[in-house]
Amino acid sequence: MRIISGTHKGRRITAPSKLPVRPTTDVAKEALFNILNNYYHIPELSIVDLFSGTGNIAYEFGARGAENITAVDANFDCVKFIKKTSAELALPIITIKSDVFKYLEKAPVKADIIFADPPYNFEDEKFAKITELVFKHDMLHEDGQLIIEHSKHTDLSKLENFKESRKYGSSVFSFFE
Fold it and tell me: In this structure, is residue 18 part of a structural domain?
């Protein structure tokens, strides 16, 4: 994986092969950030990256100037890798080792963007639970968005607060506001 833009543009990051992850592809990530750049001034944003995995999305926000980034993952090795890499890159990423659903239940967080990249084999009920918890706990600032990355075989358009989805290869980003 590589950082597409910002202070570390072109920087390649190699995650240990033992991590149980599927990083967002560079093509999909570039498309996502092209969309976000049309709506937001990234350095002013507060970000929560759920199911953070390698930290791929968190690094991209950090390299583009975001200074309030929280990366949440249940896997100890993923959290350790993100903490180490963000320190090497001098990116302001706070790491939290937690089950995402427990985090969403208890975290007193408000963010501009909450990005979730759960496993592609997630059940529909779990996708619905993410949106339910984010909106029930009023976790988004005004004009904020929840973005869920998922497989092209999953349709989240029936969930409450759905705005639109964009497909890039086998990945889809669904936007909720």
Answer: no
Which phi and psi angles does 148 have, rounded to 5°? -115, 125
CB atoms within 10 A of CB 89: 17
Tell whether 41 is covered by a domain: no
Alpha helix (H) residue ranges in 64-158: 76-88, 100-106, 124-136
Kindly state the helix (H) or strand (E) to which residue 142 belongs, with its residue range. strand 140-151
Q: How far apart are CA 142 and CA 111, in angstroms?
A: 9
- In a domain? residue 110: yes
**Which residue do the tokens 């939290």 mark?**
96
Both tokens of residue 137? Answer: 């706990």
Three-class secondary structure of residue 129 per DSSP: helix
Q: How do the pLDDT tens digits run along the chain, 177 residues long?
A: 899 999 999 999 988 888 888 888 889 999 999 999 999 999 999 999 999 999 999 999 999 999 999 999 999 999 999 999 999 999 999 999 999 999 999 977 899 999 999 988 899 999 999 999 999 999 999 999 999 999 999 999 999 999 999 999 889 999 999
d(CA 26, CA 31): 9
| Distance between first and last Cα of the chain | 29
The answer, as to whether pTM is greater than 0.90, is yes
Query: How many folded domains does the chain comprise?
Result: 1
